[in-house]
Write a structure and sequence with these properties.
It is a single chain. With 231 residues, the chain is an alpha/beta fold. The protein has a domain of 128 residues: P-loop containing nucleotide triphosphate hydrolases (Rossmann fold, 3-Layer(aba) Sandwich). It contains 10 helices and 10 strands. It is globular and about 45 Å long. The model has no long low-confidence stretch (mean pLDDT 95).
Length: 231
């Protein structure tokens, strides 16, 4: 479904990515792991067309999207849950959801289904975005991405800064989303939860993917976890 080859990205004269390679199949859950500042978010933003790539190739379902602006990437079926949530503060919960709704008679995700996934949002549907708690904002960010009815959902720091009970709720919701067959590319630091959810992992270090493998392989690779994740 997604193939990234030799991806190089600069910020001005500073190089951030040095030839990232990764792939993801339909219905698969894949992670990007690594310490802070290693290039994970830049990789996602480069895939989405938010950051201009210097070179390399990004393909989605066989289409070369390397030069596509972000809105075209989204229209093709990639939904983003960005780091920091970035919900619309001056819109209500309900308005945030319908603002990104994709008009499609075959759509899987509707407002009603989002409220079923996150009952907390149904209770706060008329609350302004800036009045929601951090956990509610993250649920809303996930719901907003799902309302685009994507084929692939990308989450950047899925549970960062959230209370344990809210993190548990987010992981449960992602498990339900995965059961529906939606492909997921995810960044997070909670390796224990990621190992349960994900099929494969890519470790990013200094702008390159330095290790790739399954959850079972990562579990057996204590030296890799220590060297690149500090675990």
């Amino acid at each position: 479904m997604l193939s990234v080859s030799d991806l190089v990205t600069h910020y001005g004269h500073s190089q951030a990515l040095y030839g990232v390679n990764l792939s993801l199949d339909a219905g698969e859950v894949v992670t990007l792991l690594g310490r802070n500042g290693m290039g994970k978010t830049t990789t996602i933003n480069s895939i989405m067309g938010i950051v201009q790539k210097t070179s390399g190739r990004v393909q989605f379902e066989g289409t070369d999207i390397s030069s596509f602006p972000s809105y075209k990437v989204a229209k093709l079926g990639i939904g983003l849950v960005p780091e920091g949530r970035q919900i619309f503060p001056n819109l209500t919960t309900h308005e945030n959801l319908i603002a990104t709704a994709r008009e499609d008679i075959s759509k899987v995700w509707s407002v009603e289904r989002i409220y079923d996934l996150f009952p907390e949002l149904a209770e706060r549907k008329y609350s302004m975005g800036n009045l929601l708690s951090g956990g509610e904002q993250q649920m809303l960010a996930i719901g907003r991405a799902l309302m685009t009815n994507p084929k692939l959902m990308i989450l950047d720091e899925a549970t960062e800064g959230l209370a344990p009970l809210i993190r548990k709720k987010i992981w449960e919701s992602l498990d339900r989303i995965r059961a529906d067959g939606l492909a997921i590319l995810i960044i997070d630091k909670n390796l224990k939860d990621l190992m349960k959810l994900a099929d494969r992992h890519h470790i990013v270090h200094r702008g390159q993917v330095v290790w790739s493998g399954t959850s079972q392989e990562l579990q057996r690779s204590a030296d890799i976890r220590t060297q690149y994740l500090g675990l």
